[in-house]
Structure formats: C-alpha cells, structure tokens
Write a structure and sequence with these properties.
- With 388 residues, the protein is of the alpha+beta class.
- The protein has 3 domains: 118 residues, no CATH class; 69 residues, Orthogonal Bundle (Helix Hairpins); 161 residues, Heat Shock Protein 90 (2-Layer Sandwich).
- The strands form 2 sheets. It has a 5-stranded mixed β-sheet with strand order 2-4-5-7-6. Strands 1-3-8 form a 3-stranded antiparallel β-sheet.
- A hairpin with a 3-residue loop joins β6 and β7.
Length: 388
C-alpha cells in the first residue's frame, strides 16, 4: 500500500508540475501577445480606434495614460486568474484519473503478492472500469487457475510416487531380508521370491520410464525425427513384442493391418504411443478376453490406428478424466501394473506432437476402443494402389 500511495502522490505531483509549467508559459506568451496586439490596435494598425485622430498621431503618449495602464493590469490579472482556475480544474481531473488508475494497480499488486505466497485461490474482479484492466484481470485469473492446477498435479505426483514406490520397495526389502535370514530355502520359495522381486523391479522401471517421458514432453524436449516407413510393418513389430506378454496373462492379442501405406512420421514416437495403449489394454483385459491392434485408411481422415479390448470398460464418470495426468480409476489395477496413470496422457501428447488426434470410447462390461488418427498429409505412398 505504501508503494501505491507513493505512486499516486508522485503522479499527482508530476501532473501539477507539468500543468504549472504549461500555464506559466501560456500566460507569459498570452501576455506578451496581448501587449503587442494592443499597441498595434492603438497605433491604428487595425484601423483608427474610436475615430480619434490624436491616437493615431501620438500613440506613444496615449499608451502611457492611466487608462491604458489600468486596462492592461486588469487584462493581465484576468489572464492569470483564468489560468489558475483552469490549472485547478485540470489538477482535479488529473487526480480523479490518477485514483482511477492507481486503485486497480493496487489490486493487481495485492493479487501478485498473494500468488507469490502460494495462494492460488486468489481471484481479482474483472470489473475494473477500463477494458484493458478487465482483460489484464482475466489473464491474471487464468494464470492463477493454471498455477493452481499445476500445484495440484505436483502434489498428486508426490502423493502417487510415495505410495507407489513404497509397495515395490517394501516387497523387495522383505524378500531380501528373508533371504538374508535364510527364511527362504526351498527351490519353490526361492523361485517365488525371485519372480516377485523381478516383477516389482519391472514396476519400478515402468514408473521411471513414464516419469522420464513426461519430463521430456513438459520440457519440449521431444523433437520429431520423421522418416518414411510402412505403418503396418511397425505395428506388426509392436504386436510381436507384446504377444508373449498377452499370452502370459492369457489374453488373446490379435491384429488386423489394412492401411497398406507408407507414412512420414517419427517411428519412435509412434512406437511409444501405440506401446502405451497396448500395455494399458492388456493390463485392463481379464484372462480369456481379447485385445486387437488394427490399422486402416478411413475416407479423407487419413490413417487410423485402433487398439480395442473386450475388458471391463471404463465408467462414464471416469471417461472424462482418463487424459488427466495421474488419474487412476482403478487404483488396485494400477498397483498390479506398476503404472502412475500416465499411459494415456503420454500417448495423447506423443500423437499430438505430430499433428495427430487420439480418441477413446468405452462401455462398461463391453470394452474400450482407442483410436489414433493422423491426417492424410502424412501418407507418402499408398501400397494398395501400387499393387493394383
């Protein structure tokens, strides 16, 4: 508040000094101009005044009369009184405008101070009188909302990390202590311990990879290195990589590649995006059900890549949040998979980096369908046309 008062006072003093300078100069110029004009008038420069010839013959003598001096003094006093009145009115108007400007600035300063202390719930009224101040208020409120969202994401990140890291670390530590104390000795127990430690280590690796990918995206460190390749060939490689994982979970992993085109994209980014989707689908699908990876050309929409499962589906209330970072509708399932709720957000970001779009549809007890769409402009060659 002291800073604002100082600003207000200095602005008023600046206005006052400027007005005084302008008025003094104006009155001085007006006074000099009046004397010269009046002398010219009396000397007959504008014609014979009052029709008295003596004024024209002896103007200098007339100029020194008491009548002229009194008239001259009255005119000068009138000019100064008028100038001072104008200056006072101008100072009043300037004070009103200054207060109108300083009050919103005071509010902005207080708002910035609250934000600086971490109060992201702070809001500032957009009723500031001036359109520019209203726009600034809206921008600051939007900034506060974004900072609040980032703060919530950060808190959620720390909460998830502390929770998720505790489980694998506890399991690994428990088995290591049991091995050290020779509480586990039979081959079957040793095998179970090694399998559990291996699984928890894999979970840790998944979490670290997700966080690394997220950091790269947030820091704009992901730079596409596009090249021409057969999209079905890359999808086939991904399918073969995940087939053993699906088999272990007793999930049927099928494919249907019908795109038959070469595309100009970053092969690694496409691989990472589809791998995230396929991993999520296999994890969400119960034993005995199926997951399908397919590709096709859909009209003018370009290349579509679809990952579809016949799992438990996503409830409607959760579907709107699946792209929110760290959102986990089924926390127990994510603990088994070692995920942090970043698979879908990362896949979407990787697709959008190259101008694609990711869409998800899901029905409870029916399954989930995730579609990656790239524009037709990424197609460099249509293999089906060449074959025909």
């Amino acid at each position: 508040m002291k800073k604002t008062s100082s600003f207000y006072t200095r602005l008023i003093l600046s206005y006052a000094a400027l007005l005084v300078l302008v008025m003094v100069l104006s009155i001085s110029i007006a006074d000099a101009f009046f004397i010269r004009a009046f002398k010219t008038f009396l000397s007959g420069g504008y014609g014979s005044p009052f029709g008295i010839e003596s004024m024209v013959i002896e103007p200098k003598t007339y100029l020194l009369t008491a009548t002229y001096l009194k008239f001259h003094d009255m005119m000068r006093l009138s000019v100064w009184i008028g100038g001072c009145a104008v200056m006072l009115i101008a100072l009043g108007v300037a004070s009103w405008f200054t207060r109108r400007f300083s009050q919103p600035i005071s509010g902005f300063a207080g708002f910035a101070d609250r934000i600086g202390h971490g109060d992201y719930d702070a809001q500032i009224s957009d009723n500031q009188g001036l359109r520019e101040f209203a726009e600034l208020s809206n921008s600051l409120n939007h900034m506060a909302h974004e900072l609040k969202c980032r703060d919530e994401v950060e808190q959620e990140l720390f909460s998830n990390l502390s929770h998720e890291l505790r489980t694998p670390v506890t399991v690994i530590k428990g088995y290591m202590e049991a091995l050290d104390a020779e509480l586990i000795s039979s081959p079957q127990e040793l095998h179970s311990a090694a399998e559990a430690i291996s699984q928890e280590t894999a979970n840790l690796e998944i979490m670290i990879n997700e966080l690394r990918q997220l950091a790269q995206i947030d820091n704009n460190a992901v730079t596409p290195e596009a090249s021409d390749f057969d999209v079905d060939e890359v999808l086939g490689y991904i399918w073969r990589r995940f087939a053993p994982i699906a088999a272990v979970r007793e999930v049927l992993l099928s494919h249907q590649f019908e795109a038959n085109v070469r595309v100009h994209l970053d092969r690694q980014l496409l691989d990472r995006a589809v791998a995230n989707l396929l991993s999520n689908a296999i994890t969400a699908t119960p034993s005995g059900h199926s997951v399908t990876l397919s590709s096709a050309i859909v009209g003018s929409h370009g290349v579509n890549i679809v990952v579809e499962d016949t799992g438990s589906g996503i409830p409607q209330e959760d579907l709107a949040h699946v792209f929110d970072r760290f959102f986990r509708g089924d926390r127990s399932r994510n603990r088994r998979s070692g995920g942090l709720g970043l698979g879908l957000p990362i896949a979407r970001d990787l697709v959008e980096i190259e101008g694609g779009h990711l869409d998800i549809k899901s029905t409870v007890d029916v399954g989930t369908r995730v579609t990656i769409s790239y524009p037709r402009s990424v197609i460099t060659r249509d293999e089906s046309l060449l074959a025909s």
